[in-house]
Amino acid sequence: MNARILFAALAAVAGATPLAAQTFPTDNPTIRRIWEIGQQQSQVYPLMQVLLDSIGPRLTATPEHKAGNQWLVRKYSEWGIPASEANYGTWKGWRRGFTHVDLVQPRTRSLEGMILAWSPGTANGRPVTGQAVILPDVADSAEFVRWLPSVRGKFVLVDMAQPTCRPDDNWEQWATDSSFEKMKAQRDTARRAWADRIRRTGYNISLGTGTLGRRLEQAGAAGVIQSRWSGGWGVNRIFDSKNLQNTPSIDLSCEDYGMVFRLAQNNQGPVLRVAAEAQFTGETPVGNVIAEIRGSEKPNEYVVLSSHFDSWDGAQGATDNGTGTIVMLEAMRILRQVYPNPKRTIISGHWAGEEQGLIGSRAFAADRPEVVNGLQALFNQDNGTGRIVNISASGLPRASGNLAVWLSQVPDQLTRFFQSVGLPGIPGGGGSDYASFLCHGAPAFNLGALSYDYGTYTWHTNRDTFDKINFDDVRANAILTAMLVYLASEDPTTVPRDRRVVTTPGGTPGQWPACQPAIRRSSEWTR
Ligand SMILES: [Zn+2]
Prior knowledge:
Layout: H1 3-14, H2 29-40, H3 44-55, H4 63-78, E1 83-105, E2 109-111, E3 113-115, E4 128-134, H5 141-147, E5 155-157, H6 168-174, H7 177-201, H8 210-218, E6 223-226, E7 249-252, H9 254-265, E8 271-293, E9 298-308, H10 318-338, E10 344-351, H11 359-367, H12 369-373, E11 375-380, E12 388-392, H13 399-408, H14 412-415, E13 420-422, H15 435-438, E14 444-449, H16 454-458, H17 471-490
Parallel strand pairs: 4-5, 5-6, 6-7, 9-10, 9-11, 11-14, 12-13
Antiparallel strand pairs: 1-2, 1-8, 3-7, 4-8, 8-10, 12-14
Helix pairs in contact: 1-13, 2-10, 2-17, 3-10, 10-17, 13-17
This protein binds zinc ion (ZN).
């Protein structure tokens, strides 16, 4: 639907000025100053550069995460905004060092690979040399167990090798139809066969290296090698190795994994040398960074800027969620200048542990019930660099009216690209931190951005890097967010919490998403 038409309809519903009457520059001086500061004195680029290049990725409870939290607190205090790290528990501390993976037989070549998050390294980071072997195609678990002793000192390839690391859209463009169809059919067959091969061992490779990785470790494997191709050029997803204690689990790029796999398959004797440093540092205190500008009229009502600060660490955590982080940080910087005495209390929450299951935000909701109870609105952003184009009322029908009034006061430059304003929307049960508040029935809204191939190229991948960011879009998002926060804070009405009727996809009565208990230490992580 055309956003302009929708807004006019929304505004009519809410009894606000129709959007047609709105032009920019606006006659609201605060909105005008937010625009000017956000455009002309933007700090988005230098903030992002320090965060992504100098601090780096922010896997929960790593030294980078801690350094990042300290940097956030420092930035806020430079701007005169009270902020601190609010500890909520502990998490498995870990420090990533280097990973070097080389093919040393039948020829020499350095490979693109890295250990997974929370993987052990090699002993003292020293190189380990061993043959690369493919997980065998056994008849059953008994045969697998008989094979296991042969694995000692070897690197075991546990994923299927992709027949091609060329993305499907490229095949579609260049290959004949029959060739493309043939490749897809072969790949589907190979996928099914590989899933059967894993199943017949009696173990699994779910959640990183699964029970299979643990069994290979017990049998003395030198390492577990996987490759989780995302479907794009040069892109792998890098998650974690949850249950290995002294055997490195390594992701190799789609191309390099395929090469080692073919060498092994054709008895050409691939030998790898792996050196990887990693250090477990024990249960480590973790916290969210909370910045707070106290409300002058209604201090017990809250407008919250929400973004998770932690990331996976295959790259820089640029679009997940450096962009959301900087949007909120910049919005707070602007608000401090143009709106230093807000009507309601404004909080910016930079959550930890989102990637392990919204852990930081859930803990905050549990620790600060007054914020949940007094929440006027929460705005969360967590899907990359694109312009915000989708906002949903999250299943709170009467909140739609407030959203409409706020959006009707935002300049058209920021809303003309909107694809939807979901009315009344459905309550999201997960996916990002807004869910930790919405499950309590509090008005928590997700700011949905254009994809920029987020799912294929940057989400949890080794290519989630600085260069993927569109700074014009991030600047616009910070300005939009600052305006929404200001308008929500000034709103003479309190956002109503009436809930929509919830139905299942099958049409039977459904439930409002339930709140999950807050997890306080990594041993409670059952995922
Ligand atoms: Zn995220």
